[in-house]
Amino acid sequence: MSTLSLAPAFTAIPRARSTVRLTRRGRLAVFLTSLFLVLGVAFMLAGGAVGTGEAGQPAPTEIVQVAPGDTLWGIASEIATDGDVRSMMSEIERLNALESAGLAAGQKLRVPVVSD
C-alpha cells in the first residue's frame, strides 16, 4: 500500500489582537451616527421629487350611470376607441377610485370623454 501525504498550501500567520474595543455606548454612537447619515442623504435626495407650483390640466370626463346588467368591461369597450379595453378599464377604475370591477345599477361613473 502507498501512503499519500499532503502539505498545506499556506500557513496561517497569527495576527496580533487589536486593543480597540467598542463599549455598548460606543456601538450606540456609531449606529446613531450611521443612521443619521443615511437619513440625511435620503432627505437630500427626496428634495428632488417636488411637484411644480402650477396646477395641471384635468382630463375631460363625463358622467355615465350604470344600467342593470352593465359591466365595467362593457362600458370600457364602448369608450375605448383604440380597442385597448383593459387600459380603459384601468383608467375608469383610477378616475373613480374603484377597488374592484364590480358595479351596481344606478352607480354614477366618471369616464374619459370619447374624442372621435
Explained architecture:
This protein is mainly alpha-helical. The model has no long low-confidence stretch (mean pLDDT 84). It has helices spanning 24-46, 72-79, 85-96; strands at residues 61-65, 108-112. The protein has a two-stranded antiparallel ribbon with strand order 1-2. Helix 2 (72-79) packs across helix 3. The chain has a domain at 61-112: Membrane-bound Lytic Murein Transglycosylase D, Chain A (Roll). The chain contains three helices and two strands; from the N terminus they run H-E-H-H-E. The radius of gyration is 33 Å and the shape is elongated.
Feature tags:
116 residues, mainly alpha, Membrane-bound Lytic Murein Transglycosylase D, Chain A, two-stranded antiparallel ribbon, 3 helices, 37% helix
Blueprint (SSEs and pairs):
Layout: H1 24-46, E1 61-65, H2 72-79, H3 85-96, E2 108-112
Antiparallel strand pairs: 1-2
Helix pairs in contact: 2-3
Low-pLDDT stretches are: none
Query: Number of helix segments?
Result: 3
Number of strands: 2
- Based on the coordinates given, report the CATH architecture of the domain at 61-112: Roll
In short:
By secondary structure, the chain is mainly alpha-helical. It has helices at residues 24-46, 72-79, 85-96; strands at 61-65, 108-112. The radius of gyration is 33 Å and the shape is elongated.
